[in-house]
What we know:
The structure holds 2 protein chains of 2 kinds. Chain A is mainly α. Chain A is built from 11 helices and 1 strand; from the N terminus they run ααααααβααααα.
Amino acid sequence: MTPSRRLIAAAVIVAVCLPLALIVFVSGAPDATGQQAAATGEQQLPVRLDPIKPRTPTGMTADEAIAAHENATEGPEQPIPFNHRFHTQELRMQCEYCHGGSDRSPIAVMPALDLCMGCHRIVGANLEPIQRLRGYYDSGEPVPWERVYKLPEFVQFPHRAHLRSQVECEECHGKVEEMDRVYKFSSLKMGWCLDCHWQPGEDTDVATDRLLTEQFPPPETPDERQPIGLYPRRLNEHYGANRGPIDCSACHY
Amino acid sequence: MNDGDVEHSGNETTATAEGTTRREFLKVLGVAGAGAAAAACGPPDTGDKLIPYLIPPDDIVPGTSVSYATLLTGAGPEPLAIHAQVRDGRVIKLEGNPSRPTGGALSALAHSSLQDLYDPDRVPGPRQRTANGLVDATWEDGIAAAGAAVAGGSTVLLTPPAVGSAARFYQEWAAAVGATWMPWEPLGLEALRTAHGIAFGIDAIPTYEINSSDHIVCFGADFLGTWLAPVEMGARFAAARMPGHGVQARFSFVGPRLSLSGLKADEWIPARAGTEVLVALALAREIASRKADGRAARVESVLDPFTLDSVAEAAGIEAEKLRRLADQVATAKAPIALPPGIAAQGPVATDMHLAVILLNYVCGAIGSTVKFDGETVRPRHVPFAAIADLGRRMSAGEIQTLIVAGVNPAYATPASLGFAEALSKVPNVISLSPHADETTSAAGWILPSHHELESWGDGLLSRDYMALAQPVMQPVFDTRQREDILLQIATAAGAADSFQAADYSGYLQGVWRELHDRLPAGAPGFDDWWYQALADGGVSLAVPPVTDVAPPLTAAAANYSFRATAAPADFSLITYPTVQFYDGRGANRPWMQEFPDAVTKAVWNAWVELHPETAGPLGVETGDLVQVRTEAGSVTAPAYVYRGIRPDTLAVPLGQGHAAYGRTAAGRGFNALDLLDGTPDQRSGALAYAGAAATLTATGQRGKLVIMQGSDVDLGREIAELINIDDVPDAMEHEIDLTTLVEAAYDSDPRSPYRWGMAIDLNACTGCGACVTACYSENNLPVVGEDLCDQGREMSWLQIMRYYEDTEEGFQAVHFPTLCQQCGDAPCEPVCPVYAAYHTPEGLNGQVYNRCVGTRYCANNCPYKVRRFNWFTYERPYPLNLQLNPDVTVRSKGVMEKCTFCVQRINRAKLDAKDEGRLVADGEIQTACMQSCPTQAITFGNLKDPASRVSRMAKGARGYRMLDELNTRPAVTYLKSVTHAAMPESEHGHGGDSEHGD
């Protein structure tokens, strides 16, 4: 190879591999430290999984929302251009209004079309996507949403355990309230999961079990039982966070 | 350096116009590879869709299973109240209804009902048979044609025995359209009912309370496998045989062949086939003469001819054996005699049952252990003789229309009856069966009905409990409820005016409204009551208690003249049902074909059992082809050499040899009914399954019989342990120290409150295989087929090894469930190069499927050989894949797997417990095998909790571990099986090969 060709080849390799290396090492979790800054102030309230966050309407209109979805650069385009930013910021809807049940289910709950029609039977009837939505409902066909977050089939991931342990939706899913189109915010790699789960010293799942016997003996009567979901929160206080298991069989079985 | 492609000298390379140097090639490859990797590293579109509900069902949390209570009546001899676990609209698992006395237990055949529902060979919709074969048809055309046929008169409706509202419906239907309804069950209870009718003048089936008995004498009924109520009897048997304080019920088995039930007996009285009636009468005579009470006097004359010595000679047994048995029964406080079953049902079946009734009578068992309390309710049906008669009438052209729904008479009757040929003489044969079986293959119209799990129904489980069946999912195929099809046919025939309801679910509700009307005032309204019944699976009925559980013996019985059959000259043939196929309905279910037969451990085939003394002179070994010939026909099949059969007897299993039915069943084995000539028992009309005269010829050829167990004895390795009742030490004095299991360094994290373990009571295990099938169902186990089974590549995580142990009386079987022992010091863990096999903090031996690279070193190192390797990716044709459990990874080729102690259930229970701020309670986690066991032989729990049931069992005196000397510290403790038989002199109580040295 001539020296100049050699130089070009080397430059090409570096130009390709350096960004590649950067992508590999830099992509991964957003810092999921899990510090529960807001936890302490909310003990007296009944259990809330999604503390009310201030929503700041920006005056976006429905047409703008549809256009923003269609013109967004990240994330797959959905069959109906559902804009999360519009629904959460403008309309101030909570995550759990649509995705309720995620705290009881091992899987994240996708809202049924019935829920959308609760409003959109009337709201936005003049908009073309809403009409398409109603078309789906009337024909009895569910909307085939493009899936953004998918874990491999050999992983069993319990959503409810994470919500019960005060993991904020945005820690894994990013600031969905600012997304016109939902895109994959986290790598979903096992290393990223372990960034939160793995603390040096002890398997915190084991420690949690031990704590349950020592610190929080079972209540004497059913009346003394706290509402479901409070115990993980109290464990969070004790530890700073309930980190969850690092045992392979906790997720791979 | 030399590049391969281009000539060059020194270090200079010359790139030619067409060639590329190796260096350049590698660089381009590297860049392209890196580029491809870079492309793959970014967040890709998954390409998957998320499909939510349209209108979500209430109260269903997605991702969790919903339990629907329903009823299974077609899964064997007993109706079972079940909970169907439904996930995302698909039923994935069946479990017993915990509110019933049998709890979560089910039989193997009941579990396999799922594979019947999801059978890919089910008829997917209405079909018509034309000159061009089977063509698709519409429901309208089919029902119109059926209606016209029915309107023409001379119609017969053949169904399985119907319970509850369905029975009422069929009667009304038959009356409305002018048809005859014939409910039929091939393995029916005709002889039992007839005999009890003669003896007591009532039409009832007693409850055999063997749990209250101290001596059980069984005259052939396979009560732990296929007779009357195997799940219920399993629980009763375990209670009877619990060796508490040195007391345990004795169990003697009389018959020419040891069935699954017989293998648990302390003593086998090997009476010649057909002579069980004589043995019962001789025993009764002996006991009556000793008791000399009113009952004895009543039957003295009828029993008089049957002396012990003459009967012993006729039966081919030692008189001393019979005398000793009589002594034992006479001195027993609460003896019970169990009647013969199908395997002993010969031409004098009623007489046999009556003889056993007389034995129970003189023992005083009637009213104490044999109770007519109405707890055992079974539907009535026509006897086999009626079906034979139907065949004759069909051949004579007297039947215009035959509607067959859910029975298969072309298969389940002897070929000599010619039912298949008779079908061709019937102008209109309409099949409502969901399966393309032999009878349906002759039908002109196929209007397939729902599977039981997709249907409405009800039925009495006992006199005070009415169970309700509801559909647990939408129909898998284009089928309709059987009764709805009949209703539509009646409408088409212009005869539906008498029916109040438009469809069967309305009819059923109407019947239940009547039931509700009879409730006392203050009962909840119908809707609330109905929904509660659906949720519970049934309702308790307020019925007055039965005061008289001991009806008096009739004069007819006291003066009965018993017939005996002459012993055949050559061999006596026995045909018997198996737990996996029953009458043949289980044959197209892969789990049932791959289930090793409880006695022979053979799979995917049928065989001829013969004694070693028969096989020896003929030079026949297990697997050699032999020909069995009777007057009715002949069959060539592989032989199985079996100690548990008389030398003058041959035994063949029922249920195989289907000509049609599906890809799994067709062409497997042979149909044992081809060897029967269709003789019925005169009094009851029951088919004589046993007693045909047969000849045996060795063909000299080798067949293929895949046996899933290598050795029938444990070769002195103390794997299966059997001890005499007197050797069961007092539990308090001999407690086993569990600290080696729970506190040794590697067994579990010392800070964890859990160390999961299991205790398996070998005394209770009957080898029925419910646990094995439950495990297949729960853990997505693949079925590999006959050839791979032959290579030892079966995938069963739990296997039941059947080891023979010699006693002074003969031999007994110990059924040994073998599963991953979750060793504390597991040999499989240190040898895995990729840490796929590892130890969890809670003591389990974990297996991470996605790490496994398929070295198979772990399986090599396992001393128990419980690890299973996926040599292929096994296919599950639609809709069998709908049964898969989403909570358990489906493994593909190259991955090792093994029992996980149902870790998915453990994790779910821990999540639930953590939500409530507590630890998992004892009994909260039930592994699939534990849940399904009718005898509760398997217990799972936390070994670190000294109060848990598993800890108490593991510490108990009968406890031991498999291959303990290897220091693997297994978490599974086995409890030795206990027998009344005296054990041979050798120290550890097992005979066989160990006495000859190792």
